[in-house]
Amino acid sequence: MIGQVLVDGIGAGALIGLGAIGVTLTYGLLRFANFAHGEFVTAGAYAALVVAGAFGEVAPIGPLTFGWSLLAALAAAMACVGGLALLLDAALFRRLRRHGNAIVLVIASFGASLALRSLLEFAFGGEPRYYTTDIAIAVRLAPGMRATADQLVVLAVALLLMLATHLLMTRTALGRAMRAVSENPDLARLAGLDAAGVVRATWLLGGALAAASGVFLGATVQLRPGMGFDLLLPLFAAAILGGIGSVPGAMAGGMVIGLVEAAAVPLAGAQYRSAIAFLALLAVLLLRPRGLFGTAD
User: Fold this and answer.
1) Domain tally for the chain?
2) What confidence tens digit (pLDDT) does each residue in 201-221 have?
3) Closest-CA residue to 147 (of 3, 247, 296, 294)
4) Is 195 exposed, middle or buried (0-12, 13-18, 19+ CB in 10 A)?
5) Relative orientation angle of helices 273-287 and 247-268, to the nearest 10 degrees
6) Residue 147's domain spans which residues?
7) 293 in a structural domain
8) pTM of the predicted model as reported, rounded to 2 decimal places
9) pLDDT digits over 77-93, tens only?
10) Most buried pick, 86, 195, 207, 237, via CB within 10 A?
11) Tell me, what CATH number does 61's domain have?
């Protein structure tokens, strides 16, 4: 049982961590909680559904239930949702940031979340959708550990995207600029950094990673208009647990939340897994209020 909990928890944690990166970057840079981030996850899943459907029937890759069309759709969905995040910022958040009131931004993001979710449900209906109707067969990895080929590929790609994001933040000029603006916006502007460009890059990156999380969730479970909203609280929990503004922290926080939720299912039942995950979050924060990777102000 422990082995299967590890498999399920790591798989879920990778998707949570991937989506939590956008949450932590947005909060670290702009200092507000973006409730529309869950709808970026959902929009990415449905964007990939549309693009993959345009390819028609495509043969699966080896033991996978999906073909190359879904991988192409993944790239297209990341670009589309990155653009959606930029558009939402330009149309709404940028104008409200001038007032310097974080509460106004939070309420606006909640309204944007409701509007986007309603639009997605209107466009695609409320019934669950699937990228493929093929049945994924779980294979034995080790004693007490089973996973489908889809889950293993999704986990590998999610971890690669996390690593690429970490390298972007630590080894590139853009990443250093994003960290500088996050730590001290005024000083970064005085140093000649393009703060507006950094904000745009943050929205683009956060939206793209949220889309990837949605596509992976749809590939291993199903697509629903409320899938991103259901994932929103674990995303915020992972970002807070890891330490706001820390990309490695979001990854680690996602893994912790995923593992705790997976362990809660056999112990207390699936209906209590979110409650137990948040109890674990509170326990960690009581001992380390700034999170696992957060730094003291």
Assistant:
1) 1
2) 999 999 999 999 999 999 988
3) 3
4) middle
5) 130
6) 2-287
7) no
8) 0.92
9) 999 999 999 999 999 99
10) 207
11) 1.10.3470
Q: Answer for the pair 48, 70: CB distance below 8 angstroms, yes or no.
A: yes
Q: What is the 3-state secondary structure (H, E, C) of the chain?
A: CHHHHHHHHHHHHHHHHHHHHHHHHHHHHHCCCCCCHHHHHHHHHHHHHHHHHHCCCCCCCCCCCCCHHHHHHHHHHHHHHHHHHHHHHHHHHHHHHCCCCHHHHHHHHHHHHHHHHHHHHHHHCCCCECCCCCCCCEEEEECCEEEEHHHHHHHHHHHHHHHHHHHHHHHCHHHHHHHHHHHCHHHHHHCCCCHHHHHHHHHHHHHHHHHHHHHHHHHHCCECCCHHHHHHHHHHHHHHHHCCCCHHHHHHHHHHHHHHHHHHHHHHCHHHHHHHHHHHHHHHHHHCCCCCCCCCC
Model pLDDT for residues 119-141, shown as the tens digit of each residue: 999 999 989 999 988 888 888 88
Tell me whether residue 188 is in a domain.
yes
Residues 263-297 pLDDT 10s: 888 877 778 877 877 787 788 778 777 777 766 55
Return the amino acid letter for 6.
L
C-alpha 259 chain-centroid distance: 16
| Distance between CA atoms of residues 77 and 257, nearest Å | 26
Residue 206 contacts residue 214 (beta carbons within 8 Å): no
